[in-house]
Amino acid sequence: MSEKQVRADVIELRARIAEIGRLLEAEYGRPAPRRKLRPLDELILTILSQHTTDANSGRAFERLKEAFPSWEEARDADPAEIAEAIRCGGLARIKAARIKELLLRLSAELGALDLDFLCRTEMEDARRFLLGLDGVGPKTAACVLLFACDLPAFPVDTHIHRVSKRLGLIPPKASAKDAHQILEGAVPEGELFPFHLNLITHGRRVCKAQRPLCERCVLAPHCDYFLGRADSGQPSAVNDQLSAGSDESGNAFIDATRPSDPQRVPVR
Questions:
Q1: Going from the N-terminus, what domains does the chain have, and what CATH number goes with each?
Q2: What is the pLDDT of residue 256?
């Protein structure tokens, strides 16, 4: 493919994303700004959010902070004490061990439990640091960069991965890592947060994994999945690919399937 064709494809993708973003905002509104957590808090909250509801992870985070007002206290605590504090979030023993390991490693490498420096670092350097931590994959790193540091990263959770494939924004076989790279370079910087949140909302309410509600979808005229099915009367090739493959990134526990919903921030 020529460089000219690549540029044309990028321009077309950006135009499609702009129109899809406009339609989603008309349907769901402009998401309200979220209260920002510090980077280490955001990282811990992401760990707690795996395989549970937003309400449960928020309560677990609040109880963790109540039990251990500083991360140094959590670092020095027995994992069983951490597990007891976060029990309402589910998988308490696994998450407690992960949190303890993370805090110990950061203390050893940085000498302090403070990741605020990431917000003053070039984004790719900050991403590289986060990805170097055990179990941190592209989605978790992007959550910290976007939500805590206001850097132009774009987290791709399972809803965004699925919906983007169906829309044809990313190739049918694109991995989660591929999706991060493609979408991050195509979503306008000022639209990263609203597009992220509204695409998750659309995936939860309409473009569901098993039975998408195509008949009520505002994006249907722009959707490869819908147009393919409408033309043939059968499930589209994109749907076949989704059924045969997996939305998962293949990353370790911390970067598992829990959506990166910005509304999950607990009130403290």
A1: 3-32+155-244 (1.10.1670.10), 39-152+252-264 (1.10.340.30)
A2: 41
